[in-house]
């Protein structure tokens, strides 16, 4: 075996070993969270985290799902606003970005400047609240999760940059064959843009799925709570009850509240909230890196 080949094998061995170690560092915290969510509260407090719990305890999950209908309703609201909102958002942003990528569009520069300007300044919390709640009447509706965040200037610029990298000859040849701009966009441009579409869709989906702030500001109807906000409320209630149990005046017996799970409940909530996204991510993974790099380095 030649010296060059030996060096190549050694190099690959170290590279593979490095990625194996990095993979373990990413997987290990997730396994600890799963284990902690299935560990008894007292054992977790005394012995700390273990990869394999001494025995399985479903107390945290039982408390979260004590009101199954409420959790399922929150799942339904979150799923609808996340997936439908992502689909609508990506559609609108691509329709906005495509004309901006065409050099023959007359108002390309002023509109691009206007889009970029919104990245630097915004209306502020109070004007935004008044606009959405008082004038647009979006409060306590499902559309408050979708319409105000329909477009992102940053993602529009990413789409525009990616579209600029596509060969203009494809568009010109399609026009010679009599294709309209709409047909060119949906049958030529979008199929060639899968990497950037998947990347922006994934980032938008994660943002919408983890949204709890919108419910806090605009929603008072419990039927429209998102999953993240509902889990946050459940955790706050449990922490408050534990606090009351530990700080009760003499003569009032609330000792039964001391057994309520807090730490295991937190980890169970992590699994419940993040589980669906862990199933969705593999479908976007192969496009993720390519979409970000191609859409960001070209000018």
Characterization of the model:
Helices cover 71% and strands 0% of the residues. The two termini are 47 Å apart. With 299 residues, the chain is mainly α. Helix 4 runs antiparallel to helix 10 (194-209) and helix 5 (108-120) runs antiparallel to helix 7. The chain has two domains: 3-47; 67-297, Orthogonal Bundle (MetI-like fold). This is Carbohydrate ABC transporter permease. InterPro entries: MetI-like, MetI-like_sf. It is found in: Cell membrane. It is a multi-pass membrane protein.
Counting DSSP H or I runs of 4 or more residues, the number of helices is: 13
- Unreliable stretches (pLDDT < 50, length at least 5) are 295-299
Rg, rounded, reads: 25 Å
**Fraction in beta strands:** under 5%
Largest sheet: none
CATH homologous superfamily of the largest domain? Answer: MetI-like
> Any idea of the CATH topology of the largest domain?
MetI-like fold
Shape: flat
N-to-C terminal Cα separation, in Å?
47 Å
Q: Could you give the count of β-strands?
A: 0
Tell me the name of the CATH class of the largest domain.
Mainly Alpha
Membrane topology: Multi-pass membrane protein
Domain ABC transmembrane type-1: 75-273
Keywords: Cell membrane, Membrane, Transmembrane, Transmembrane helix, Transport
Family: Belongs to the binding-protein-dependent transport system permease family.
